[in-house]
Write a structure and sequence with these properties.
heterodimer, A: mainly beta, six-stranded mixed sheet, 11 strands, 0% helix, globular, B: Immunoglobulin-like
Chain lengths: 115, 111
């Protein structure tokens, strides 16, 4: 079956440090992956995505790495700030029986940034 | 654009009551979804729709019903509320999977 999971449920870092959040996926047919950030009381917000034909993609202070060999995804946040404190979800795209695409979400990692 | 709007934001139901969670989007997205998020957990897909008049079950559809009479609206119906349905419900819409936009959620408590 398909599943998306996370290695660490919680992560605590010091302000200014780099953060790395990991995610494992099991569906080798997935070709699209997304990281979402969810602040308390809010809906998930898109951070960065990557297609399976890439192994790295950079955004503003964030980098996503994809290792298809071991089915592993990571999110790197540079110079972590207090505003980065949130729960981070990875999601993979899978096709429904009807042929449309839907996202399968992992459980999430709670990132706490200490001042 | 308002994006995806969910109402109400909070609701307390008694066991056996019914209610409809409203979701509307103004982005002309074909795809709409309902997820539930239990404490400390990820999002689980309840129902989804690929266009007006078309709906299909997700991972956890039992106890829920949906309809999609227009592109903009995708209400979620709970007919006989149970404590197991206490959760935060998120509606989302997308053009393709790349363009997922989530609403701010409805926090439902069944007592």
């Amino acid at each position: 079956g398909e599943s998306v999971g996370l290695h660490l449920p919680t992560l605590s870092v010091q302000e200014g440090d780099n953060s790395i959040i990991n995610c494992a996926y099991s569906n080798s047919a997935s070709d699209y992956f997304i990281w979402y950030k969810q602040e308390s009381g809010k809906g998930p917000q898109f951070i960065i995505d990557i297609r399976s034909n890439m192994d790295k993609r950079q955004g503003q202070r964030v980098t996503v790495l994809l290792n298809k060999t071991v089915k592993h995804l990571s999110l790197q946040i540079a110079a972590t700030q207090p505003g980065d404190s949130a729960v981070y979800f990875c999601a993979e795209s899978s096709r429904t029986q009807g042929g449309s695409e839907k996202l399968v979400f992992g459980k999430g990692t709670k990132l706490t940034v200490n001042p | 654009n308002a994006g995806v709007t969910q109402t109400p934001k909070f609701r307390i139901l008694k066991i056996g009551q019914s209610m409809t969670l409203q979701c509307t989007q103004d982005m002309n997205h074909n795809y709409m979804y309902w997820y539930r998020q239990d404490p400390g957990m990820g999002l689980k897909l309840i129902y989804y729709s690929v266009g007006a008049g078309i709906t299909d079950k997700g991972e956890v559809p039992n106890g829920y019903n949906v309809s999609r009479s227009t592109t903009e609206d995708f209400p979620l119906r709970l007919e006989l509320a149970a404590p197991s349905q206490t959760s935060v419900y998120f509606c989302a819409s997308s053009y393709r999977v790349e363009g997922y936009t989530f609403g701010s959620g409805t926090r439902l408590t069944v007592v």
